[in-house]
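User: Working on a comparison across species. This one is Trypsin-co-occurring domain-containing protein from Streptomyces misionensis. Can you predict its structure so I can line it up against the others?
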Amino acid sequence: MIELACVIKDLREELNRAIAAADGEALRFELGPIELELSVALEQSAHAQGRVRFWVVDAGADSGVGKTSTQRISLTLQPTLAGSSRPVAISGAAEPNER
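Assistant: Here's the predicted structure for Trypsin-co-occurring domain-containing protein from Streptomyces misionensis:
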């Protein structure tokens, strides 16, 4: 199983790679809402803080989750660039008029 925070971090890294890989390309795609549907296992820690952790269940890990109940959750993420409220374009560099 993988922590939900790691899944979102990896998604962010993949999107950053897509932006960099499109450098110089004429065709650009505006990045709209990202919808994720995940199977998660909930784990509540018995420590003093009582923290709840969300684990994303890997497709091949079902047998290891035997005693853990799983739930499906849907997330919609709206990507933005730090310091900007404009839509994100999958591209390497901004056009001069896009600053």
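For your comparison, note: DSSP finds one helix and six strands in the chain.

User: Helpful, thanks.
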